[in-house]
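Structure first, sequence second, as always.
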């Protein structure tokens, strides 16, 4: 096969233009706006088949509704309890369980701050997700 060279010609002048023209479509936004996160389907099955109680699931999903970029979650137990209409002690027990299972990671520096394990779900850039999974991303405290 012969080597072919593609060229561009300026239609108005007939001049050969060096370089390459590239079509880059406008970036389309997803229908969720800023309220989205990506979740691993294996995690969904793990949650469904775990020994998490109904209260544990409610607390987890309430926390996920506050998920910020790089999986930061800042919400206090009283707010969760009030929103879910369950006792604060129940929320505390659920947070301990979710933490012991490695689903959430409590902040060492800030009260009421957690991080969702990036192996379950992610909110942020794909590049930072890969780095977080590999333990190479230095995450800011939420």
């Amino acid at each position: 096969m012969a080597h072919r060279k593609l060229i561009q010609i300026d239609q108005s002048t007939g001049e050969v233009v060096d370089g390459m023209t590239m079509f880059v479509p406008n970036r389309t936004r997803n229908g969720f706006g800023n309220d989205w996160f990506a979740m691993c389907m294996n995690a969904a099955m793990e949650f469904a088949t775990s020994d998490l109680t109904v209260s544990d699931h409610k607390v987890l999903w309430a926390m996920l509704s506050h998920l910020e970029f790089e999986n930061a979650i800042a919400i206090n137990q009283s707010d969760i309890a009030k929103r879910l209409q369950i006792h604060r002690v129940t929320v505390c027990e659920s947070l301990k369980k979710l933490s012991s299972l490695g689903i959430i990671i409590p902040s060492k520096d800030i009260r009421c701050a957690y991080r969702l394990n990036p192996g379950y779900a992610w909110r942020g850039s794909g590049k930072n997700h890969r780095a977080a999974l590999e333990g190479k991303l230095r995450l800011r405290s939420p």
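Margin note: Helices lie at 41-49, 54-64, 77-84, 88-100, 126-133.
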